[in-house]
Amino acid sequence: MKSLKNADSFFDGLETWKPELTVLRNIFLSAELEETIKWGTPVYMYNGKNVVSIAGFKAHFAVWFHNGGFLKDSEGVLVNAQEGKTGGLRQMRFTSIDDIDRDILLSYVYEAIENLKQGKVFKPNRNKPLIIPAELEIILTSNSSLKEAFDALSKGKQREYADYISSAKQDKTKTARLEKIIPMIEKGVGMNDKYR
């Protein structure tokens, strides 16, 4: 993923969904949200807190509400794209520019802002048990310096690595992922540090 300096460079570089995502951008800017780039995509914030972001996919484009789990969803348009993984995120999907209803979208944005003002912010479960997958455990047991580096990481970073390996469905994918993360663990960096 190339590094983006600002949202203009994101929109200038779009090859698909450019008109559609630009409409969404203009709607969010009209709500006086602050625009920035996080995780390689535009994020719109209120008082420094994430409200909504946009993304384009192969078959659809979408809006992510960062604390969408608190939204009433009176129109029934929100989905949890990764049930069981994304507690607070909710997504509104579109397949055409004609699907965008400015009034409905703004009502959700204003509700999300009001929720932030009331202190309704999703807090991830930090007490979730750390389950090291067998493939990672074997490598850590056989390499004491790697185990030491892994143990020096925060529980959150350890969990990111464990989840990354556990979520692979095929053995060859797990092997490839292990090869990728070993140097990162040795350097003492987290799986997702580059996005922070």
UniProtKB/TrEMBL annotation:
Query: Which InterPro entries does this UniProt record tie to the protein?
Result: YdeI_bac, YdhG-like
**Name of a matching Pfam family:** OmdA
Annotated YdhG-like domain ranges read: 17-113
Q: What highest taxon heads this organism's lineage?
A: Bacteria
What protein is this chain from?
DUF1801 domain-containing protein
